[in-house]
Write a structure and sequence with these properties.
Blueprint lengths: L1 H4 L1 H12 L1 E4 L6 E3 L3 H14 L12 E3 H12 L2 E4 L14 H7 L20 H9 L5 E5 L9 H8 L7 E6 L9 E6 L1 H10 L1
Parallel strand pairs: 1-4
Antiparallel strand pairs: 2-3, 5-7, 6-7
């Protein structure tokens, strides 16, 4: 369902814009989440080695909204708000017996170790160099140019992303119909270092 499928995008936008998460379904709502790396590993095995016609690709465990937003709140200090009379949505447990028996699949555990890192620098390159040792993986920029102390190079990244080939855009809220525009870029450190060696 739409409210579940886009949960991560909705949480990201609200968190970045307002430092608040508003849920439209109960904290007790739950569904199965699987790490994207697990999906990427499984699909080629199923295509080339699968004996069955249909497989469930899942973790085999439901996770409640409460578990997710509690961890996000711990990491960011954001406010959690649940809309009054929010319904409870519960997906049935998904059997992963086939992928376990055929491919010895074991779902990756969820690591709630992400954090917001604040860095000071005079360019995107400075930010990336300083951030590498601190575990910086992503850059998040939006189109609100009137923020106090906003560095001009973040605006440059927002409007001229093609100038930064070592930043891979993972999400753009405009592509999902939101008026507030935020972009999330993953840092490709290998490409960044290769380009810096050439320059």
């Amino acid at each position: 369902m739409h409210h579940q499928t886009c949960l991560s995008h909705l949480l990201s936008i609200k968190l970045i814009k307002e430092n608040k998460i508003t849920l439209h379904s109960s904290l007790e709502s739950e569904r199965d989440y699987i790490h994207i790396d697990d999906v990427v590993k499984l699909i080629p095995d199923i295509i080339h080695k699968g004996k069955e016609n249909i497989y469930n690709i899942a973790s085999g465990r439901n996770i409640k909204n409460k578990e997710i937003v509690d961890e996000i709140s711990k990491m960011t200090g954001c406010e959690i708000e649940v809309e009054e009379n929010s319904p409870i949505y519960s997906s049935p447990n998904i059997s992963i017996d086939k992928i376990k028996s055929e491919f010895q699949f074991s779902a990756s555990s969820i690591q709630y170790d992400a954090r917001v890192i604040s860095l000071d620098g005079s360019s995107i390159e400075d930010i990336i160099k300083l951030g590498k040792s601190k575990g910086l993986s992503y850059l998040v920029v939006d189109n609100l140019n009137d923020k106090p102390n906003r560095k001009s190079f973040f605006n440059d990244l927002f409007y001229h992303e093609e100038k930064y080939p070592y930043l891979v855009k993972n999400f753009d809220s405009k592509e999902h119909g939101y008026n507030y525009q935020v972009k999330i870029f993953k840092i490709d450190y290998e490409k960044f270092e290769a380009l810096n060696l050439k320059s």
